[in-house]
Structures are given as C-alpha cells and as structure tokens.
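Hey team,

Filing this mostly as a record. A colleague (T.K.) asked me to run one chain through the structure pipeline before their review meeting, and I want the input and output archived in the tracker in case anyone asks later how it was produced. No errors, nothing strange. Just documentation.

Input sequence:
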Amino acid sequence: MSAINKQSRDFMKSLQLIHFGLLFIIVAFGAYVALNAGDQLFFSYQEDKMFLYMAILISFVGNLSSKYLYAKLLKQIPSDANLPQKAVKYSTAHIFRVAMLEFPALMCIIFVMESNNSFYFILVGILILMILSIYPTKYKFVNEVPLTTKEKSILENL
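Output structure:
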C-alpha cells in the first residue's frame, strides 16, 4: 500500500475519532451536571427567561457560524493541492465546525448547572443530533472537496 493510500485512510479514522471525542466531552459533562444536580433539577420554560434567550441565541449563532466557517474553509482548499494537503484542510474545517457546535452545547449545560433547569438539555440534545449528522465520512469528503479523478479513484480503493 502506498503512503498516500495509508495517509488517506488514517486521516478519516483520526478525524472520526476526534469527532467522537468532542461529542463525548458534551455527553460526559452533561451527565456529570445531571448526576450532581440530582433532585434539584426541574423543567420549566417559564422561568429564567434571560438564560433561555441567551441559550437559544448562542445555539443559533453557533449553528450559523459553524456552517459559514466550514463553507469558507472548504472554499480555501486549492484544487491543485495534493490529496494529503486537501485532507488536512478538510480535517481543520470539520474540527472547527464541530467546535462551533460544541460551544453552545457546553454553554447550555452550564446554564443547567447555574439554574437547575433541565429545559436546556433539550437544546443540548438538538446540538448533539446536529453534530452526529455531520459525522465525517469518505463520501462527504469526496463530495465536498474538489478532487481530481485520480484522487477519487485512490479514495475508492480504501
């Protein structure tokens, strides 16, 4: 197996591992807060209007900025770069995208911790689903990055 094939296969596995690592941080922190709060948690969308509006705004802005930044970073990938360079730039764009969704999720968990209102876990769940929906695959890489025919054939053989 050539070095390019091995690097191409390994970059996707490492990107998927980073993706799940960032997702695990949200789930672990959320579980920690939920277990520590225990019986003090309540569910209400009537109280804590300030946290509610901030959580929705932060989640909305995080989602929009993740899409914008991801698209901008993908446009910066030169079509004449080699496959490993494209893979690195795609990985960077994807990690930034997940991080821009992770921040609002962590903020919502902090709002739960401060207010004991479990309503914010709904937003956390939505953000987790969004992160799961952008799971990096070889198919997404091929469709989102400008690849030559030779590079596509290399990726098909992985």
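Quick notes for T.K.: The CA atoms of residues 5 and 129 lie 31 Å apart. The helical segments are 3-37, 49-75, 83-115, 120-133, 138-144, 149-156.
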